[in-house]
Design a protein that fits this description.
Largest sheet: 2 strands, antiparallel
Helix content: 55-70%
Distance between the termini: 37 Å
Number of strands: 2
Radius of gyration: 15 Å
Structural class: mainly alpha
CATH superfamily of the largest domain: Winged helix-like DNA-binding domain superfamily/Winged helix DNA-binding domain
Length: 122
């Protein structure tokens, strides 16, 4: 099951939240993203169905191995693209917004070329 862009955004948010705290619940995701609880609940259901996350009886969200792998890939794209744009002189806030849009549509080939190019600059 391929996630839609919105699902990827939820997954990445859960990943970032789990890096800051050992316990993440739907309310934390809603607050972080500025979305309503019903919207988050629907997305959580989709992520569970796709086996990206599990949710225990107390409502705590855990990324599955598949979820971690996908989220780490998204997060890497986001951070590398943001850093590239900032290094080119783009304002950090704009760079972050643009990276968020691009990370969901850039091909693996193009992203790998960017990583290789940046690596050669160091």
């Amino acid at each position: 099951m391929r996630l839609a862009e919105s699902g990827e955004m939820y997954l990445e948010t859960i990943y970032v939240l789990t890096r800051k705290s050992t316990s993440v619940r739907s309310i934390d995701v809603a607050e972080s993203m500025g979305y309503s609880k019903p919207s988050v609940s629907r997305a959580i259901g989709i992520l569970k169905e796709g086996e990206y996350i599990t949710v225990d009886k107390s409502g705590f969200i855990t990324l599955t191995e598949k979820g971690v792998k996908t989220a780490e890939s998204l997060y890497e794209r986001h951070t590398i693209l943001t850093g590239l744009f900032v290094s080119l002189g783009v304002d950090k806030e704009i760079a972050t917004e643009d990276a968020c849009k691009i990370e969901h549509v850039i091909s693996e080939e193009s992203f790998e070329a960017i990583k290789k190019y940046i690596g050669g600059m160091k």
